[in-house]
Specification:
Protein name: NHL repeat-containing protein
CATH superfamily: TolB, C-terminal domain
Strand order of the largest sheet: 1-7-6-5-4
Keywords: Signal
InterPro entries: 6-blade_b-propeller_TolB-like, Hetero-Diels-Alderase-like
Organism: Acaromyces ingoldii
Radius of gyration: 18 Å
Bound molecules: 2-acetamido-2-deoxy-beta-D-glucopyranose
Length: about 325
C-alpha cells in the first residue's frame, strides 16, 4: 500500500506553556504536529522506535508521527469502508491491534455492529494490515489495552463494560457489565457535559497486575477493580478519585495521569491530585502515552481535539515533559 506524506504544518518544537510539577520540575508543553480540519484525534501508541501511531474517531486513517520532527506525519494505512479508528495497543513488538468501525462524534453513537478488530503489523518494510474479525457486540469501543496471553481488554463506553478479546481466536466476552462506576448517566438537559459515556480508558495497574484502573466519563470518576488470572474483574469497582476525564495512563510509580480537556490531572497514591492546565484554548485532550525513547521517557504525548468555531475541529499531538 501507499505511504504518502500529508500536507500538514509541522511546527517547530516551540515552548507553548510552562507549569510546575509537584516535584518542582517544569512541565514544558510543545506541539509535535498539527492536523487540518476535519479531525478528532482519539488515541495513540508509541512504537519501540519512538514513532507515534495516532488514531482519530472521525477518520479511517492510521497516522505515524515522528516526535523529533525529522519527517512530516504520514498516513500508514486507510481503512476503506470505515469511518473511525479508536483504541490501539501493541500486542507484540511492532504488531498492533485497533478497533475500526463507524462512530459519530456529533451524536456520540456508532452504527450498530460496525466495529471489528484489525491487526497492523509493522515488522516488515511495508505495513501489513488486515481485519482479524468483526466484534458485533461492541457499541462504542474506546480504551483498548493488551494485558498478556494474547488477550486485550476493550472498554466500551456505551455498554458501560469491559470486553476481553483473544487476538488469535476472537471469542469476545463481556467480562464486566454491571458495575455502577462504569455506567453512563441518564441525559440531563441542564448538564451539557454528559455525553452518554461510561468507562472510557482502561489500563493495568503497573504496581499490581491483578488490578485495572479506568476512567468513567459522565461520572467524572477514576476507578479501580481487581481482576483474576483470566483478566475477569472480581467484585465491584471502587473510586480512586474524582477527575474530569477522557483516557488515562498510569505512571510506573503508580501515579495516574488523566486527560482532562485542557488539563492533565495527576492522581497520587492516596488520592490527592494536581491539575496542570496546559492551555486556555477550547480543546479536548483525548489520550496520553509515555514516550519510549530519549529524551521522551518521562514525557507524555497527548492527542488533542482543537474545537473549531464552525463545528469542524483541527487536531494536534502535544508532548509534555517531566511526568
Ligand atoms: C461505515 O461507513 C462507511 C462510510 O460511510 C460505509 O461505507 C459503511 O457501509 C458503513 N458501515 C456500516 C456497517 O454501516
Ligand atoms: C455491587 O454493586 C451492586 C450495584 O450497585 C450492588 O447491588 C452489590 O451489592 C454490590 N456488591 C458488593 C459486593 O458490594
Ligand atoms: C483546568 O482544568 C480543569 C480540568 O479539566 C478544569 O476544570 C478547569 O476549569 C481548568 N482551568 C482553567 C483555568 O482552564
Amino acid at each position: 500500500m501507499l505511504i504518502f506524506s500529508l500536507v500538514v504544518a509541522l511546527l517547530a518544537l516551540d515552548s507553548a506553556a510552562l507549569g510546575a510539577s509537584i516535584s518542582g520540575q517544569r512541565h514544558r508543553v510543545r506541539t509535535v504536529a498539527t492536523f487540518p480540519a476535519d479531525i478528532d484525534p482519539e488515541n495513540l501508541v508509541v512504537r519501540h522506535s519512538g514513532q507515534i501511531l495516532m488514531t482519530a474517531s472521525n477518520q479511517n486513517k492510521l497516522y505515524q508521527i515522528d516526535p523529533w520532527g525529522r519527517t512530516k506525519p504520514i498516513v500508514l494505512h486507510t481503512f476503506d469502508g470505515h469511518m473511525s479508528v479508536t483504541g490501539i495497543d501493541e500486542v507484540e513488538k511492532d504488531v498492533f491491534v485497533a478497533t475500526v468501525g463507524n462512530f459519530s462524534f456529533a451524536t456520540f453513537t456508532s452504527t450498530p455492529q460496525s466495529f471489528g478488530l484489525w491487526k497492523i503489523d509493522l515488522r516488515g518494510t511495508k505495513p501489513c494490515v488486515g481485519k482479524l474479525f468483526a466484534i458485533p457486540e461492541l457499541d462504542v469501543p474506546n480504551g483498548l489495552v493488551y494485558v498478556g496471553d494474547n488477550d486485550i481488554l476493550i472498554a466500551d463506553s456505551h455498554v458501560g463494560g469491559i470486553f476481553r478479546v483473544n487476538v488469535h481466536s476472537g471469542h469476545p466476552k463481556l467480562v464486566d457489565s454491571n458495575d455502577p462506576l462504569m455506567k453512563s448517566l441518564p441525559p440531563d438537559p441542564s448538564n451539557p457535559d454528559l455525553v452518554g459515556f461510561g468507562i472510557n480508558g482502561i489500563h493495568l495497574n503497573p504496581l499490581n497486575k491483578h488490578e485495572i484502573i479506568f476512567s468513567s466519563t459522565d461520572q467524572n470518576v477514576i476507578g479501580k477493580v481487581g481482576i483474576n488470572q483470566h483478566f475477569v474483574p472480581i467484585g465491584n469497582a471502587t473510586k480512586v478519585a474524582d477527575a474530569v476525564n477522557d483516557d488515562l495512563i498510569p505512571a510506573p510509580n503508580g501515579d495516574i495521569h488523566v486527560a482532562s480537556n485542557n488539563a492533565i490531572t495527576t492522581i497520587y497514591p492516596g488520592g490527592s491530585k494536581s491539575v496542570f492546565n496546559f492551555t486556555t484554548d477550547a480543546v479536548r485532550l483525548t489520550a496520553l502515552k509515555y514516550g519510549r525513547t530519549d529524551p521522551y521517557k518521562h514525557s507524555l504525548f497527548g492527542t488533542v481535539i482543537v474545537f473549531g468555531e464552525t463545528g469542524t475541529n483541527t487536531g494536534k499531538l502535544i508532548v509534555v515533559d517531566n511526568y
